[in-house]
């Protein structure tokens, strides 16, 4: 999966592509173990057994490697959420499944090994492209579920759709944004349940 | 006001009390200008013109001074919120006023001068007693407003009161906890409006 998210230069062939993947995989392992912020490209080069100059042939900076790792993890979160939502019997059920899946997948992919947290934190703080794309995905998914619920007569239609979707995004944000999730891991399961109930009461026709 | 929140030792008289206030006031100025984390008691002593040993006669540590400052600021937030809520014509109105006042007062007291933010962040992260008391205040105020709204027939009564109050706390937390508010300052006004609307829709009978 890494390969689809790296951005290969058009002048490079399949071998370069493999090297990029190899660097990303090794960097994922390394950052997971030692953290992102404190690691330098030199540390990474030494660990992989490449020269620093060779790594710079493929990535402009440590951040360029970090972005690929972050994008890969976020892609996994989105896949898990899509799969959870697809099984929902109603818009309400899809909403509950979505919220739970965001927390479960986000926790598993960024926090179970605490060391990857600092990539997530840096990515959120500096609004990396992968995080911006993830936020658009969240917004669109919420708007879609609300729209479907309105069309099915499950949800009220008086409030402007934009306002409803935006407010729900705000409610979910502390559990979806990787920078904020770190402060909300404790009790996140109960929180999801209570907040899902509150949101669904607010959506009642 | 500082005087009520310091904890004077019973063996000390009014003069000591004044000195404590003087240290707290000077430290507030100093931390506002140079930040809390990076300042040492030596820096502070030099700035006030006291010896370090003299400051230690009144406070066990830098944190002990920080706690008084934090408690004072949080007391001001609570006063502002109480005043705002007192003017509310209905439970819904009181809820809206409360939410707005938390953000306005929290922003003004901790963030308008960004340098005091790090006291707030440290206090939240390490769950200082002043922050714990503040959190209890928030929980109790929310529960009171919900209860009053239920009694007046403004709010639904089917959901257990504890669950409703807890969920509303969770919705408001990113704007009330000083550690989290820093990430949510941008757009906080709009967020309060949309979230208040959502919460009030969820409370409709």
Automatic annotation (TrEMBL), chains A, B:
Cross-referenced SUPFAM superfamilies: Homeodomain-like, Tetracyclin repressor-like, C-terminal domain
Organism this protein belongs to: Massilia cellulosiltytica
Domain HTH tetR-type: residue ranges: 17-77
This protein's name: TetR family transcriptional regulator
Organismal lineage: Bacteria, Pseudomonadati, Pseudomonadota, Betaproteobacteria, Burkholderiales
Keyword NAD: no
Top-level taxon of the source organism: Bacteria
Pfam family name, one: TetR_C_27
Gene3D superfamilies documented for this protein: Homeodomain-like, Tetracycline Repressor, domain 2
One term of GO molecular function: DNA-binding transcription factor activity
Record key words, sorted: DNA-binding, Transcription, Transcription regulation
DNA bind region: 40-59
